[in-house]
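Async update (no meeting this week)

Hi team, since we skipped the sync, here's where things stand on the single-chain job. The sequence we agreed to prioritize is pasted below, unchanged from the tracker. I ran it this morning and attached the output directly underneath so nobody has to dig for it. Comments welcome in thread, and please keep replies under the output.
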Amino acid sequence: MDLKISSFKVDITPNLPCNVAGYGSLDRNIEKVFSRLEANGLVWENCEKPLALIQLDTLYVTSELRKIIEERTGVQAVLIASHTHGAPFLDRNKTKLGIYDQEYFEIVADKLVEAIKERSTTQKSEIYCGESQANVAVFRRKKAFGLFARNPFLAYKVALLPNPDISIDQRVTCFFVRDAGGVVTAIFWRFTCHPVTTPGREQISSDYPGAIRTYFRKKLNNENLPVVFLPGPAGDVRPAFTNESGKTELIRRLRFPFQSTFFSYPTKSQYEYFNKSLSDAILDAFDSAKITVSSTPKWSRVSLALKSLSRLSGEDIKYPLGVLSGVGDSIFLFVGAEVSSQYQEIISNRWGRKVFICSYFEDVFGYLPTEDQVDEGGYEGKDFIPLFDLRGDFALGFQNELLKAIKGLISC
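Output:
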């Protein structure tokens, strides 16, 4: 059967002024646009029901939005957020992380429904895949002696500090959809790094996913090219923007007197270097791309319970897992969490390097650490829990339960 893929893009930049989410602040009233926000999507038309892979420039997406799209368009929808920290908030369940904007939610829903209904003409398609490496990110958990906000206040424990000694996945994997004439009609690509590269926080920004989207469009001379970004397990990975201790704030040096390197706020030159490095890697991936033997994709999903972690309301937490296969020999594992980067190595060792974790899928409950990270503590280990309106802790054996669920999905 011929592969038939259509695509779409739509601008979702809000009217100004507006409030945006991210960086743990509820008071970010924005009056400036650094880069515009979009939703981009691909639709595999020759599934039993059209399957739409949709990425939005926002901090989190929700199943509420997915259900609206499915009810009003008739497609199966797979929603994923870029996790940019410069967009209005679409998640009503995280009251400490952002101010939910119902009006903006409805505008985004309406625009997505219209874009899906008016998507590009279905074409016979082929998918090419290329891969390269971009060494621009760093693990952000490191044990250090210093002063902490929680008891014990003076201790040797995990802090939010650059840790280049821990290996992370820095592959840039690109998939190019081409029509029968060889023209690229859409792109989906994956990379693992928190999108916090924008110089200056008080502005609307699609961050590096938006910058790379612009790069693709200029390279292929198509300003309307749909480009879907799939964020990897970036829960504990951020841009390698650092300052030596002599160049950073005095307060950090006082807190961690034996630490020589700290994360720095992005500068314009760092932002440009980051995106230039990513663009160079993408060019390598484009030049080396080879056709994949792709079939009609298969999509399956489950919800996994976190037995001892619940919302403050008492509601039990179930987070979504999904698997998309049929794109050559690649398998995309979608997880409703801010996933630790260390899971990619665990997954690769069990099922191969072609199983790609994609974070920020639908209802993100919070961070998904490894069991070792829970024991170590730190923000991603357990300190995030109250900020996400949660209570409790991770149950013993939660990592094995996750891996069992993944095995079941991949084996289907």
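Quick observations from my side:
Residues 1-292+347-364 form one domain.
The chain has two domains: 1-292+347-364, 298-346+365-411.
Reply here if anything looks off.
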